[in-house]
Amino acid sequence: MARVFLVVLDSVGIGGAPDAAQFFNGEVPDTGANTVGHIAQHCADGKGDTPGLRAGPLKLPNLCALGLGAAVELASGFTHQDLPRDTVTGRFAAASEVSNGKDTPSGHWEIAGVPVPFDWGYFPDSDPAFPPELMDAFIREANLPGTLCNTHGSGTVVIADHGIEHIATKKPIVYTSADSVFQIAAHETHFGLERLYEICHVARKLVDPLNIGRIIARPFVGETVETFQRTSNRKDFAIPPPEPTVLNRVQEAGNRVIALGKLGDIFAMHGIDEVRKVPGIEALFDVLMGTVAGPQAAEGGDLVFANFVEFDSEFGHRRNVPGYADALERFDALLPRFLGAMEEGDLLILTADHGNDPSWVGTDHTRERVPVLMTAKGLAPGSAGVRSSFADIGETAAHWLGLPAGRHGASIL
Fold first, then answer.
1. What residues does 152 pair with on adjacent strands?
2. pTM for this entry
């Protein structure tokens, strides 16, 4: 029986979003942002070199064989000698997002066949960012001595700025970004991980009327500014999708959805049977390998849905071109292991949920088209064109698994 492995390379956009001018990093529109294209260009120009990490041109032979370079050209017209397009063995497309957001839930829900039909609520880029009535209620209902920060900011920066005071006062660090988020950073031992999750539940209830997409728990460890470090115990408290997704259709057919990485949080566990979560690209790839073969492998009719978040969280938001390039090259080097283990009836789909061009201004996501790279035994290679919605990705998975079609999108195959 058929199996689908749907793998999101978080933030690996390919430029060309037709509505990029309507989305901003600060006051700069996202027009022209191109995560993969600009990383290739920067590496060719010597701006991707870091001693002891990587050097030279971007090397992604396996992703480009599946159609990454061709998808970049399809999406944005951008071509580069280090993104070859002449030896494509996979089926590829570029997809535009119709949801009015460049955030994680919007991208993933639309990938799963359900574009977001409403506008998210956002907090202003002001100081303070959160309205006083919200903060008063949060402090009261969570039984807190107060809060720190209360502005737009980078997670690593706000922890460095407020971590010492947080440890001393037990006041959590609250902050937001251009996404629809209310983020809470707290020390895992001095404040307590379960206590952090507890106050996130309180915040989730309070921001529901404001249509805020996620409360994000951001635990960290360390005793000094120099040793503060965020941990892998991050947890997102998201609202559920507005209607059933392809995940629910898999379950209704009597099969399983196995989520790898942060997918359980993104979908508020709706349509998900099992979560397997470890930090790091190599570690999560090992978990992915365990779903294609071995005692914990997916069975016929199952959907494996994975998110490799490090591209976004560690390198995109931090505007780290060499780190992002290295992460892409490490993932590329792992790919042959998976391709060699695929069985008859397996479909691999590699895609992304938005862009996060590390060469761009600001620290927020960039509005871009995403690649859709597909391979299966017997699947004819070539272009499937530019798709008008990420929902086509979920419908492709549904079609491959023999499921009923959804209300949005159409199968690429």
1. 176
2. 0.94
Q: CB pairs under 8 A, 24+ apart, for 198-204?
A: 198/142, 199/138, 199/142, 199/144, 199/172, 200/235, 200/237, 201/237, 202/138, 202/141, 202/142, 203/138, 203/142, 203/237, 204/237
In contact, 25 and 366? CB cutoff 8 Å: yes
Q: What is the mean pLDDT of the chain?
A: 97
What are the CA-CA distances from residue 54 to residues 36, 40, 57, 275 (Å)? 16, 13, 9, 33
The answer to whether 166 and 186 have CB atoms below 8 angstroms apart is: yes
Residue with tokens 């460890």: 221
Q: What is the CA radius of gyration of the chain?
A: 21
Task: Look up residue 147 and give its two tokens.
Answer: 């809060």
Tokens for 343, please give them. 């069985």
Among 62, 90, 18, smallest CA distance to 333 is for: 62
Strands across the sheet with 274-276, in order?
274-276, 257-260, 303-308, 3-9, 346-351, 370-375, 91-95, 382-387
Quote the tokens at residue 236: 């997102």
What does the pLDDT look like over 22-38, one tens digit per residue? 999 989 999 999 999 99
User: What is the per-residue DSSP string for 26-64?
Assistant: TTEE-TT--HHHHHHHHHHTTTT-BTTTB-SS---HHHH
Cis peptide before 128 (omega within 30 of 0): yes
The two structure tokens encoding residue 64: 């480009």
Task: Return the bridge partners of 80, or none.
Answer: none
User: CA 89 to CA 289: how far, in whole Å?
Assistant: 21
pLDDT one-digit tens code per residue, 341-356 = 999 999 999 999 999 9
Do residues 327 and 315 touch, judged by C-beta distance below 8 A? Answer: yes
Task: Determine the pLDDT at residue 178.
Answer: 82
* Type of residue numbered 49: D
DSSP character string of 357-413 = -TTSSSSS-B---EEEEEE-TTPPPEEEEEES-THHHHHHHHHHTTPPP-SS-----
